[in-house]
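Troubleshooting: if your tokenizer reports a length mismatch, compare your output against this known-good record of 98 residues.
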Amino acid sequence: MIRVVLPAHLKTLTRVPGEIELDVVAPVCQRSVLDALEARYPVLVGTIRDPATQRRRPFIRFFACEEDLSHTSPDAPLPRDVETGREAYFVIGAMAGG
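Known-good structure output:
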């Protein structure tokens, strides 16, 4: 079971107030987690990744085990603690200012 934490605005879209638990088919990587997330919550299609290119949207970041995975290959294996459910996979809405 993979635990996913979404930012507040995406929790509102999914109507899920807390963590999401997903069954993800191996290999457990960012692509498979996001595929499972979008399959379960179709309202998220296009909010986290561009539907045509599958690239991460601007101002969306991915974290797990205190690591920024935003620029990691979407097919790279996620840390073992995420795969086992000990740690969550975080989708974060980045902030910008000036």
